[in-house]
Each structure stands twice: as structure tokens, then as C-alpha cells.
Amino acid sequence: MTKESGQNVRMKCEFKGNPTPVEIKWYKNEAPLEIEKGKIEIKHSSSGKGRIQSKLRILRLDTHDMGYYKCEAANSYKTVETIGILKVIRGQYMSSAAALPLPDYQPMIPEFPGLGHGRNRVSDSTHN
């Protein structure tokens, strides 16, 4: 799935087994995913009859959240998994810091003694 930065995303996995799966784990790029208050939420629930589900919610996405997400469930006999890919593209989201006015700095133009001043044009020898 593809989302814009700043958005939230929800992923859900559901497993059924006999005996009921007792453990569900989430991974990002094969590393265990940890709950992070205000950023990553994981909730597990059981609907009975051998079914268990897990919901992953990631808040305020940024490009660092992009990756392969795996949900893995296990009971005493077997471990199974499902994998999804999350792509995060730059969106129109602006953080509160981005809304602050920027100072009015004059552009720096470097001077290189051997080449003259930075405003001089360097010609491209392939287009003579």
C-alpha cells in the first residue's frame, strides 16, 4: 500500500488455528516492531473459535516507516506469517515547525581564487 507522509495507516492480520494461536508478533524489515507511544500501536483480540487478530496502527507516517511489515502467529504446532509492503511518499503534510517563518538569509556565494567569483559562469566543453 502507498500512503503520504503525515497520514496514519492501519494494518490487520487474522489467523485461525487449532489450538488457537497464542502469540502474534509484528516485524518491520525482519526486526521486531515495538510499541511506541504516540507513534506505533498494536492491539490483539480473539473472536473465539480458534480465531485471533492483531491490528497495527502507525501515526504520522514519514519515509522512515517505509518497508516490509510481517505479522506472525504461532501455536504449539506451527508458525505462519503474512507480509505487506508499505510505501510512504512525500505528502502535503506540514509539521508545526514547518509552519514557522524562515529567517531571511542572503545566499552565500563562494569565491574560488583560481576560478574567480562564484557568480561567474562555467562553460560546458561538450556544448562549444
TrEMBL record:
<dbReference type="InterPro" id="IPR013098">
    <property type="entry name" value="Ig_I-set"/>
</dbReference>
<dbReference type="InterPro" id="IPR036179">
    <property type="entry name" value="Ig-like_dom_sf"/>
</dbReference>
<dbReference type="Pfam" id="PF07679">
    <property type="entry name" value="I-set"/>
</dbReference>
<keyword id="KW-0393">Immunoglobulin domain</keyword>
<keyword id="KW-0808">Transferase</keyword>
<keyword id="KW-0472">Membrane</keyword>
<keyword id="KW-0418">Kinase</keyword>
<dbReference type="InterPro" id="IPR013783">
    <property type="entry name" value="Ig-like_fold"/>
</dbReference>
<dbReference type="InterPro" id="IPR003599">
    <property type="entry name" value="Ig_sub"/>
</dbReference>
<dbReference type="GO" id="GO:0030424">
    <property type="term" value="C:axon"/>
</dbReference>
<dbReference type="GO" id="GO:0043025">
    <property type="term" value="C:neuronal cell body"/>
</dbReference>
<dbReference type="GO" id="GO:0008046">
    <property type="term" value="F:axon guidance receptor activity"/>
</dbReference>
<keyword id="KW-0675">Receptor</keyword>
<dbReference type="InterPro" id="IPR003598">
    <property type="entry name" value="Ig_sub2"/>
</dbReference>
<keyword id="KW-1015">Disulfide bond</keyword>
<keyword id="KW-0732">Signal</keyword>
<dbReference type="GO" id="GO:0016301">
    <property type="term" value="F:kinase activity"/>
</dbReference>
<dbReference type="InterPro" id="IPR007110">
    <property type="entry name" value="Ig-like_dom"/>
</dbReference>
<keyword id="KW-0812">Transmembrane</keyword>
<feature type="domain" description="Ig-like">
    <location>
        <begin position="1"/>
        <end position="81"/>
    </location>
</feature>
<dbReference type="InterPro" id="IPR050958">
    <property type="entry name" value="Cell_Adh-Cytoskel_Orgn"/>
</dbReference>
<dbReference type="GO" id="GO:0007156">
    <property type="term" value="P:homophilic cell adhesion via plasma membrane adhesion molecules"/>
</dbReference>
<dbReference type="GO" id="GO:0050808">
    <property type="term" value="P:synapse organization"/>
</dbReference>
<dbReference type="GO" id="GO:0005886">
    <property type="term" value="C:plasma membrane"/>
</dbReference>
<protein>
    <submittedName>
        <fullName>Tyrosine-protein kinase transmembrane receptor ROR1-like protein</fullName>
    </submittedName>
</protein>
